[in-house]
Amino acid sequence: NSDGSLDSMLVVVHGAEYGIDITLPKIDGLDGYQLLWESALEEPLDAKEFAPGQSLTMAPLSMALIKAIWN
């Protein structure tokens, strides 16, 4: 951004027919992540927050949009 702040998104595409746990990466200067959308859910979700290194369970054949939260 022009003010020096960072905007980052992580898109996870899970194409297997079974669920998995993914580990969100630890990156210097990163405070956490906010799950904005998950394709497996029928209703929109309230944004969930996760710490770097925390696991997120992905449903079979699903996608997720995750925002990185920088300090």
Q: CA-to-CA gap between the ends?
A: 14 Å
Q: Let me know the largest β-sheet.
A: 4 strands, antiparallel
What overall form do the CA principal axes indicate?
A: globular
How helical, in percent, are the residues?
under 10%
Extract low-pLDDT stretches. Answer: none
- Give the overall average pLDDT: 90
The proportion of strand residues reads over 45%
Our count of helices gives: 0
Secondary-structure element string: EEEEEE
Count every beta strand, where a strand is a DSSP E run of 2 or more residues. 6
- How does the helix and strand content classify structurally? mainly beta
Q: Widest sheet: strand order? A: 1-6-3-4
Q: Please, could you describe this protein's structure?
A:
The chain has strands spanning 8-14, 20-23, 30-38, 48-50, 55-58, 62-70. The strands form two sheets. It has a four-stranded antiparallel sheet, with no helix packed on it. It has a two-stranded antiparallel sheet with strand order 2-5. It is mostly beta strands and 71 residues long.
Give a brief description.
The chain is mainly beta. The chain is built from no helices and six strands.
Set out the fold topology:
Blueprint: E1 8-14, E2 20-23, E3 30-38, E4 48-50, E5 55-58, E6 62-70
Antiparallel strand pairs: 1-6, 2-5, 3-4, 3-6
Notable traits:
4-stranded antiparallel beta sheet; two-stranded antiparallel sheet; 6 strands
